[in-house]
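REVIEWER CHECKLIST
Item 1: Sequence provided? yes
Item 2: Single chain? yes
Item 3: Sequence as submitted:
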Amino acid sequence: MSGFEGWEHASRVVADVYFPHELTVLSGAEKPELQLSSVDFGPVMIGRLAWGVDVAIECEYPAAYEINIPLAGSLESRGRGGDVISGPGQATVFSADTPNRITRWDATCSVLGVKFERDHLEREADRILGAPLRSRLVLPDQIDLTGSADDWRRLVASLSDQFSGGTGSLSNPLVSQQLAGAVTAAFVLAVAPPVEDAAPAPRPGMVRRVLDVLHDDPSRPWTAADMAEIAGTSVRRMQETFAEYVGSSPSAVLLDIRLDRARVELAAGDSGLTVADVAFRWGFSSPGRFAAAFKKRYGTTPSAMLRQ
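Item 4: Structure as written out by the authors:
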C-alpha cells in the first residue's frame, strides 16, 4: 500500500490497522513514503510496515500486545524498563494498555509487526502452559530471535511472504483460526517461562482423548491449545506424550486424518467438486500446499485422483 495524500492520511491508515497513535516526522519529509501490507487472522494480525523517513510514535497499545521485528534498520523505544534498541535478530515488545514511545523509527527500518488481542493472548497462554488463570502476561521488553524464538519468527515471516500473492486463502475463516492458534502457541512457548506445578504426569489415556476428537471432527480449526485443553495438560506436555506413545506430533496426526478424509472425498468425484473446495474444507491454507502434502502422502496429485 502506497500513495498517500499526506502525513495525516498515512497515520490514519496505519492506525486503522494497528493502533491510534501520535506520529511525529523527524526528518522533515513533505510526503509520506509509507509501505504497508497486512493480513488479519481475527485475534492475531501480521503486517509489514516501513515509513521511509525517520519518525517517532507515541501509543498506549489499547487492549492488545504488539511485537515489532525489524527486518532492516533500527527501532529505538522507551518503555517500562528503559530504552530499547532493536535491529534484525531482535524484537521489541509493547505490552497492552501501557504507554510506550518509539523515539526513533529510522528511515531504513522495515518492521514485521504481530498484533495479539490482549484477551486472546492471555487466555491462550493459560491454556498452552497449563497455568492457573492470571490477569495479564509479563513479557520482556525485548526478545532475542536467534534462540528459542527463531521458530516463531520464521513462521511469522513465512506467512508475511504470502502477502505479495494476495491474502484471500489466508483470510478463509477455517484457515485463519488455525493460523492464529499456531502463531500464538509458537510465541507463548518461545517467550513465556514454563509454569511449574504439581500436576501428575500425563497418561496414554490423554492421547486417546485427543485422537478421538480429532477423528470425530477433523474439519474443526484445531489449535494446539484446543487439543491441550482436551488432553488436560500443557501444549508442551501433550507434544512430548504424543512423541512417546504415537511417534508423531498432534498436528501431524491431524494432517494425516485430514488427508485421508480429503482422499475419500476426491475419490468419490462428486459433480462440480474442485481441488480448492476440498483443500479449504479440510483446513489447508492454499490448494498448492494441499497438493504438495497430498502428493507426498499418496504419490499422486489431488487433481489426478479427482479425474479418475
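Item 5: Key structural point noted by reviewer: The CA atoms of residues 89 and 146 lie 6 Å apart.
Item 6: Recommendation: ____
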